[in-house]
Amino acid sequence: MDLVTIVDEQNNKYTYKRYKGYAFNQEVVGNVRDRLEEVANFNVREDDVLIDIFPKSGTHWLYNTVLMLRSGSLKYNGTPAGLEFNDLKMMEDMSSPRTLASHLRFRFLPEQMKLGKGKIVTLTRNPKDLVVSMYHMMQKMGDLGYQGTFEGFLKRFLSEECFCGNGSWFSWIKDMEEWDTPNFLCLSYHDLKENTFANVVKLAKFLEVDHDEEFLRSVSENIQFDKLKESHKNATPPTDRWKHVSEDGRLPIYRKGKVGDWKNMFTVAQNENFDKIFKEKVEELGLNIDTKFE
To answer: Do 62 and 82 form a contact (C-beta atoms < 8 A)?
Structure first.
């Protein structure tokens, strides 16, 4: 494993852990090789649910929706434990049913999940929106691996040096589309916002939880962005894990939660270049992802 630091001609600084050609966030615990081996060998239970999702695609939104459905409670549950970021022994000791999270590419997930054990849920979001969201989050925090302009960050995001998803968003999506087990559900960020109740019903069915319509509608109301943002501010306790990069260890993960906010950030030139690369990558990798993002 190497710790790589790149300083470009505009003095943008980009730092990540590199292992076998893959880029990893510098916050991945310890040596990447060792952590990947531990994750691969993680003991999965039949009733485990893993939220595996590209960063800033709605991790906390989906996690808290799943927890509400599984627990039968409308309580906000804060930030999930991540396979690459938190103590695996702590996760091993968690009582069932466990709901965990990760941003790792699907190829790095536990071997038992590749064989169909447990369930995996994800959300896909317009990559233009999520790169804007990621950049703003990093500006609010300490050094998470990038210090510089949006232009510089966008350049790395579109490359295989992107540490957000162990490579580009396109490669992450390619791994997801090649996941071939019936224990997997993929939802759309845009559709979850537009048709919240229908997606909550779909998610409940996948999770095999039985709730009446009244409760499902209550979940739909309680996972609206403004309510989650307020709950995160008031109900998420301070933690030591992230206190070196955020106030009291509370991750500043809620900003706007809007679809199409990229239009307020991208220049015309940036948008044209993004669309060009997007089209090329979709064709090169044979992606089936919906290309009609707003």
So the answer is: no
Query: Which of 149, 148, 162, 154 is closest to 276 using CA atoms?
Result: 154
What is the tens place of the pLDDT at every residue in 228-274? 888 777 766 666 666 666 666 666 666 677 888 999 999 999 999 99
What would the 3-class secondary structure string for the chain be? CEEEEEECCCCCEEEEEEECCEEECCCCCCCHHHHHHHHHCCCCCCCCEEEECCCCCCHHHHHHHHHHHHHCCCCCCCCCCECCCCCHHHHHCCCCCCEEEECCCHHHCCHHHHCCCCEEEEEECCHHHHHHHHHHHHHHCCCCCEECCHHHHHHHHCCCCCHHHCCCHHHHHHHHHCCCCCCEEEEEHHHHHHCHHHHHHHHHHHHCCCCCHHHHHHHHHHCCHHHHHHHHHHHCCCCCCCCCCCHHHCCCCCCCCCCCHHHHCCCHHHHHHHHHHHHHHHHHHCCCCCCCCC
Question: What is the side-by-side strand order in the sheet with 184-188?
Answer: 99-102, 49-52, 119-124, 184-188
pTM (predicted TM-score): 0.91
